[in-house]
Structures are given as structure tokens and as C-alpha cells.
Amino acid sequence: MSKAEIRKGDYVSLEGISKDQYHAVEKAFMEAGADSGEEYGEFGYENWKFLGWGECGALDHHDYHELFSGRHLTIEQVLGEEEDETATIQSLLKKAEKHARKAQKHEAKRQEAIEQARALLPDGWELTPSIDQDVRIGYTPLSELDYCEFNVGVFGADGEDLTDPANWREGDVVECVRGNGGVTVGRKYTISSFDEDGDPSIKENDHGCKDNHYADVFKFHHRP
Questions:
Q1: Which of 17, 25, 42, 189 has the fewest CB atoms in 10 Å of its CB?
Q2: Given the DSSP bridges, would you call strands 11-13 and 72-73 parallel, antiparallel or unpaired?
Q3: Model confidence over 78-123: pLDDT tens digits?
Q4: Domains in the chain and their CATH numbers?
């Protein structure tokens, strides 16, 4: 296959190509007139999806082909050769192996973080695995710990899920997570009763008065 005339804006996909092909593509673009641009070396090959002749006149790497204004050329069009399927397969398998190693490393760190989190839980609190194996505190992924405080999975002595307001009782202490007039985020209040819809009334609000609020204004804190 004859080479295509490479023009500014043209680009190729880096998916499945070998390192040798990657460097050959770089060379082909520079021979066509592109400046070398920033030197990425192996980092460019391993971390971006597209390589092309940027509008600035230099070689450029992007994850989005829309950032190039020209044609999406194939490796064959750039290098003027038939793609070596064996080399492509080997390259893809090497990438798969690399990602597998990264996944193992991340899983080990994930498990370590889970155990550290479990050691810090008060008595009666649990970490619960979800169906998709994400560890969740309540119903929030462990990766979102900045927000999980609002949905901590708390289980009573009989196994009831105390994140569910339907399982709250008179005398339970709840913490405000959403200001709603008369209650302040972060402060704790004692439930005195429930209305006909199951929403709690607290014994005293910030003004010392009995007050009723929607259940989602609070999260369970503890049962005396």
C-alpha cells in the first residue's frame, strides 16, 4: 500500500500498535513537516489514544480525536505497509498484562484501605460489599469517602439496617446532614416520636422546642 500524503491536522490511533510502529509514525509525521514537539517517549505511547500533526505545527498527543482537524489515517496509510497482525496481537497482550499487574497492585492497596477503615469503625458499624463488589459504607463507594459520612452503614444488634429511617426508634440520636430551619448540620438531636408518614420529631431543636422534619434531614448516629 502506498503512503498517504500527510498533512497538518492528520492523526492516527495508537490503539494496538507496537512501539516500533509508534516511533515510525512519529518519524513519518516529522518527515512530512511536523515539528517534533514535546518529547514524550514511551509515556506518549502508553498514555494517549491519538497522535497527530497539531494545529500548532508540532506532533501532538490527545485522548480525543476531535482535537485534530484533519483525517484519521491508518497505520498502513502513514507507513505504507500492511499491518503486521502478529505484532498487533503481541502489543495488545502486553498492554493487557500491564493492566493486569496494575489491577493486582490496586486491589492490594484497596484491601489494605478497607481493613484500615474497618479497624476504625465504632462497635456495631460494618462495611458491606455491594453486588458489583465495590465496598460500600452504607450505600456509598469507598472511593467516595468524602461523602460517605452521610450514609454510614450502621447495623443494630439484631442486624437491622439503621441507615433506613424506617428502623429508627424513639430515643435514637440522629445527626443533621441538611439544614432545614431549627436544626444545624453536624449537630445531634434525639428522636421523641414519629408522625403518620414516619418522619421523626426531635425532642429539642436549636431553639429548645420539639420539632418535626423529613427523615432525609438526618442520618443515624447512635442508639443509647
A1: 42
A2: parallel
A3: 887 655 566 667 767 777 777 777 777 777 887 787 788 777 777 6
A4: 11-83 (no CATH), 135-222 (2.30.30)
